[in-house]
TrEMBL record:
Pfam families: Methyltransf_23, WHD_Rv2258c. This is S-adenosylmethionine-dependent methyltransferase Rv2258c-like winged HTH domain-containing protein. Gene3D superfamilies: Vaccinia Virus protein VP39 (3.40.50.150), Winged helix-like DNA-binding domain superfamily/Winged helix DNA-binding domain (1.10.10.10). It comes from Elysia crispata. Coiled coil: none annotated. InterPro entries: SAM-binding_MTase (IPR053173), SAM-dependent_MTases_sf (IPR029063), WH-like_DNA-bd_sf (IPR036388), WHD_Rv2258c (IPR048711). Residues 18-75 form the S-adenosylmethionine-dependent methyltransferase Rv2258c-like winged HTH domain.
């Protein structure tokens, strides 16, 4: 078979099995297998999960054939299933978090398809189901991101300990902001979102954290004279989702308390060129997520820039520059940017507002 046919087969088969794996996870099959230290038959799994045995058997057939679940045969010819080593680590870690996107992709498939046609709708905003998946991802990432912030942004820890005003824009379900607010009770945190229901849900969810409040803001519509100023503004995977990132960055700049107000944002780091990234399946996956989620989300207006997650590190840095931030790209020499988390930090805080970009692609 030609290399190209092999690749098409590989991708197609991986997709089919990946969707089945997502379904198996969502109905609890992995959880049930993880709870016992002996192998289970499909019937035992079905009984434990309140599931129909025939469906369970088919899914386990798929997963065991694909070597994602172990299979053995009993003396009377029944099949028994158990977890492969490392399953829990994978499903509770980054691969599992990304697997979560499969079911959301399936649920928005037709709507995104409609958006693609010229005369179809332009936008599809994030669904609750997607925010749920992002929150699960955040449960894994938030402690690590908080640590990176504290280790890589000079004096941030000291300032947060002393007490500063902080806002996170596009906070999603608010986990990262809540994590930091709990860690630094002397600072005042605001978790901001553009979606009213999400702001209300976050208010209820994090009501027990006294130094965390909530606000509804459209980042692309920050007033010329802001109501409030902040010492530190941060956002995570938001800039590329905005219809007008430059206006948003300019708005943030107006909100920074001078002279030392700081903006930190995390975004995906790619070369920006599918030619350069050719063969990198992680980047390819981000283009897929971009098609289903980021592009439809950012088309909040007809004139959206619609960057998508793979517009490239340099493009994002240049937009920040255009908005008046000085960008010192400490990693532009990095030959393999997808290998590490990169920090780019303004060094001259006297003339322009400082910016720290943390561009991440693992
Ligand atoms: C990829 S999600 C990131 C959510 C969260 N920060 C995280 O890392 O899980 C992008 C977020 O940006 C928010 N957003 C989209 N457009 C916005 C706008 N115009 N102003 C403020 N936030 C916006 C969305 O509601 C969404 O929660």
């Amino acid at each position: 078979m030609s290399n190209f046919l092999e690749r098409v087969n590989e991708v197609t088969q991986g997709t089919l099995v990946g969707v089945a794996m997502t379904l198996a996870r969502e109905v609890g099959i992995f959880e049930i297998l993880a709870k016992t230290d002996y192998p289970l038959t499909s019937n035992q799994v079905a009984v434990a999960g309140g599931l129909k045995e025939r469906y369970v058997r088919e899914l386990l057939g798929c997963l065991s054939t694909a070597k994602l679940v172990q299979i053995s045969e009993t003396e009377n010819g029944d099949f028994q299933y158990s977890l492969e080593d490392g399953t829990e680590e994978a499903l509770n870690g980054r691969p599992g978090a990304f697997l979560g996107f499969c079911s959301v992709m399936a649920s928005v498939f037709d709507s995104v398809k409609d958006c693609i046609y010229k005369d179809g709708p332009i936008s599809l905003r994030y669904t609750d189901q997607l925010q749920e998946v992002l929150d699960r991802k955040s449960r894994i990432n938030a402690p690590g991101i908080a640590k990176i912030f504290l280790e890589q942004i000079p004096d941030l820890k000291t300032k947060l300990e002393e007490g500063i005003d902080v806002i996170e824009f596009g906070s999603g379900k608010g986990r990262l902001c809540a994590t930091l607010a709990q860690q630094f009770p002397n600072s005042r945190f605001v978790a901001s979102e553009a979606v009213p229901d999400l702001v209300q849900a976050n208010k209820d969810r994090w009501a027990h954290i006294p130094n965390l409040t909530f606000s509804l803001d459209d980042l692309c519509g920050i007033p010329e004279v802001p109501d409030k100023y902040y010492d530190w503004v941060f956002c995570c995977d938001v800039i590329h989702d905005l219809p007008d990132p430059v206006a948003a960055l300019q708005g943030i700049k107006r909100m920074l308390r001078q002279p030392n107000g700081l903006l930190t944002f995390i975004d995906v780091s790619t070369s920006g060129s599918p030619l350069v990234d050719r063969g990198d399946m992680t980047v390819a996956s981000y283009y897929a997520l971009g098609t289903f989620f980021c592009i439809p989300e950012s088309y909040q207006r007809h004139d959206s820039l619609a960057l998508g997650p793979c517009s490239g590190r340099q493009r994002i840095a240049s937009l920040a520059q255009k908005a008046g931030f000085q960008v010192y790209d400490s990693i532009s020499e990095n030959k393999n940017p997808s290998q590490s988390i990169q920090v780019s930090m303004d060094v001259d805080v006297s003339q322009t507002s400082p910016l720290s970009m943390i561009l991440d692609l693992e």
